[in-house]
Every structure is written in C-alpha cells, then in structure tokens.
Design goal:
globular, four-stranded parallel β-sheet
Length: 442
C-alpha cells in the first residue's frame, strides 16, 4: 500500500543526511511493509535500518543512521481518514443541518488518530490482524466508544448489525498491554438504567487497563432524524446520583477515580460541580468533563494576583460577553467578582440560545456566528469590547457557519475579541505579563 508519502525533510536532520526527499513514498523498513507513520516510527526506532522507497516511479534504498535522541526531521503527507461505517442513532454529525463546509460531515473511525489525537473509535469494523498490529506497535492508550457491553443493545445504538462484541476485543487489548479511555453516550430508554450499570461493571473488570470512563449525555439537535428521549432534570439527577455512588465505590476500592460524569449532566440536574479532586488528573477534559471546574479554579487562583496588578490606561469601560446557556451562571458569578476589583466597568453577560442546532444544545463550542450576533446586537452598540468564547472558533478562526471575529465585528459595530480563558479576559484590563507571571503553575 503506497500511502506514506514524505511531505518535507528538515535540513541537516537525520532524514536529510540519509537522503530522503519530499514526495518519496516509503514502502518498507528492513523488509517490513509500512502502512502508516506509526509503522515508520516503530521500525526506524533503532540506530541503523534500511528503508525501501519509491522516487519518481523508481525503487530506491536508503540506509538510515541515527542516534536514539536524534529526530528524523521528516513529516508525511496526512493520509485519508478511515471513515466510520456505523449509523449511530445518536450521531451528532447526522443531526447537523445541510450546507456547512464538507469537513464538518466527516465521521472517522481511525485507530491512528485515536492513539495520536485522542479521537474516539468503536472498533466496530476492525479486524483481528489490526488488533494484533495495535498490540505489536504498543498503541496505548486508545480512546474507545463503548456505549453498551450488551451486544444486542450496542448493535442497535451503533446502527450496525455486524458490530462485534466489544468485550472480547477489550480483553485482547488488555492482555496485550494496551490501556484505554472509554466513553458511554447515554441515551435514555436505550442504554441507561441496568444496561448502563452492567456496562460500567464490565469495564471495571479490566482493572488497570481501564484508564477512565466518561458518562456523557446524548446531544440532540432540532435536525435529528431519529426521535430520541432528551434528558430532563429528573433523569439527569437520577444518573448523577447513581453514577456518583458507583464512582465513589470504585474510588474506595481502587484508590483512584476512573468513572466521571460530564459537566452537562451536573448542570442539567442542578447539582453543584464537584471539586478539583474529583477529576484526578482530568483525563476526560476533552470530552467536556471538568471544563467548568477548570474555569472556576483558574479564576480562584487568578483573582488574588489581580489585587497587586495595575489596570491598563486603555482598560475598556463597557464590555459585552457572549457565553453558552450551560456556562452563563458560572460566568456571571466570576464577572461579579471581577467587577468588585474594577467598579468602573460595566459587563453585560448574554447567554446565547442555540437556534442553529436547537435550544437543547447548550455548550459554547457549538454556538454559531448568526446566533451570537442575533443575541448580542441589542447590547453591542457603544461597547468597547464584545467577548466571545474562543472555543466556538476553529483553527482558521471561523465559527461553524463561517463567521470570523472580524466579520462579526463589522456586523455588530464593536470590536469582537475571542477569549480562551480568564487570563485572556483579564489581559484586557490588567498588564498581561503581570497577570500571567503571578498565576501559579497548574
């Protein structure tokens, strides 16, 4: 398979000295077929090896010499993602409106991206030989979507009648020394109740191979094609109460917490966000577990440092802050405390209803530009700054519906500033270097 193509070679690196060129296709290392970058890294992790390549349609051989600490300096053309073949009844991508950029509709099921980037995969289409390869390469940890260990229920959730039983797969990985983080997207009436409890108990039989379990509520948009039951305050509270007890039981048994509940469920249930210690080392923060606690703790640490820091002469007097429905109560509390130290400022905090996906979607990362503009327009006139959550922007600085901060600013008639955290916000008012330097390391 000719899919590992060199994109660039750093000058004076081990790869450059050996003679690799951009556009070379790597075929084998010491006779071992190379499928992807992980294969290449695995087989070249020695002082000397022989690499078979194809250059301009002709075969070449390169002898690679390197010190263990010496980087190769080679980057590869990113291969196509392995696409997901499931039709999960709760898939968020299938609940998205039409007409967005194509990349938003890509569903991946790529083990390499699970290992490298923390993407969740189901293992529903993986073959035995691929499991062996994962073990041989030591691709640990992996991020695995389990949802249910009952085979019939899992097939129904995945919309895939051919999905294999995941427990034998997990046993094979565990026996091979592979550890895994897992997630369970809970869909009321499908995999809650006894099914959820059994799934969790099955996962905890893997002992130290199991690194964490995330309990995540199903996300439902107004564009969904399959009718699913949303969480209510009562059903969320039931899950939080039940799982919290089970989590504490495993914590007492194992000495470490590995069962975590998503922030959304605590908020929906109107239950206080747990303390910092609940989240251990925050293994599931990319899954929305511990984000609110991180914000609250960051502000708690940052606030005392502000007392000794002078305000900027250019500090804005009138700001408007856009936030999500889930976070608005926390943000209002933080800004009331911030204003106590800067009584001259006026801060208007707006919770942006999500009409783009539907108002049951309440997180900042899924806010659209149009919804944000609609909510802020009555308050933005005359504002020195309009603050939006940076998480609603992609790496190209655009919202889901293609709005940049500059475009939003032009529509609102006020400067729009994305802020990733309270450090960014406070830098508008205080000397940024002073704020950063006085903040303790996490």
């Amino acid at each position: 398979m000719k899919n590992l193509v060199i994109a660039s070679v750093e000058k004076k690196s081990a790869g450059s000295i050996a003679g690799f060129h951009p556009r070379d296709t790597v075929l084998e290392v010491d006779g071992n077929t190379i499928i992807d970058e992980i294969d290449f890294s695995f087989y070249t992790a020695i002082e000397t090896c022989t690499v078979s390549i194809e250059r301009n349609g002709k075969p070449h051989t390169i002898v690679l010499h390197r010190n263990y600490s010496q980087p190769l300096g080679i980057t590869f053309v990113e291969p196509p993602l392995k696409r997901c073949g499931n039709k999960c009844i709760f898939c968020f991508i299938d609940q998205m409106p039409k007409g967005l950029r194509k990349s938003l509709y890509i569903k991946d099921e790529d083990v390499m991206h699970s290992f490298v980037n923390g993407n969740y995969v189901t293992l529903s289409t993986i073959r035995a030989a691929e499991l062996e390869r994962i073990i041989e390469r030591g691709l640990s940890p992996l991020y695995l979507s389990v949802h249910a260990t009952d085979p019939a229920i899992r097939k129904k959730l995945l919309g895939n009648s051919r999905a294999p039983d995941i427990l034998p797969q997990l046993k094979k990985l565990s026996k091979g020394g592979i550890c895994f983080h897992t997630q369970i997207v809970v869909c009321p009436t499908f995999n809650d109740g006894e099914i959820l409890m059994q799934t969790i108990k099955d996962l905890f039989t893997f002992k130290r191979s199991l690194l964490s379990v995330a309990i995540v509520p199903v996300g439902l948009t107004r564009h969904r094609r399959i009718e699913l039951t949303p969480f209510t305050q009562a059903t969320a509270k039931n899950v939080v109460d039940t799982i919290s007890k089970l989590s504490d039981t495993f914590l007492k048994r194992d000495g470490i917490r590995r069962l975590f509940i998503a922030d959304e469920l605590f908020i929906k249930a109107a239950i206080k966000i747990p303390s910092h210690t609940y989240y251990q080392d925050f293994p599931q923060i990319e899954n929305g577990i511990g984000l609110v606690r991180t914000i609250l703790d960051e502000w708690k640490d940052l606030r005392p440092a502000l007392v000794k820091n002078p305000l900027k002469k250019s500090a804005p007097k009138n700001i408007v802050i856009a936030t999500s429905v889930s976070a608005v109560a926390f943000i209002r509390t933080i800004f009331s405390e911030l204003r106590a130290g800067i009584p001259s400022i006026t801060a208007t905090i707006i919770a942006v209803p999500n009409t783009f996906f539907g108002e049951s979607v309440t997180v900042a990362g899924l806010l659209s530009g149009k919804d944000t503009i609609r909510a802020l327009r009555p308050f933005a006139k005359g504002a020195a700054h309009v603050i939006i959550p940076a998480v609603m922007l992609n790496r190209l600085n655009h919202t889901l519906d293609g709005y940049s901060p500059q475009r939003m600013s032009a529509v609102l008639g006020a400067p729009v500033t994305p802020c990733a955290d309270m450090h960014d916000v406070c830098a508008l008012f205080y000397k940024q270097s002073s704020v950063r330097n006085n903040d303790r390391e996490p």
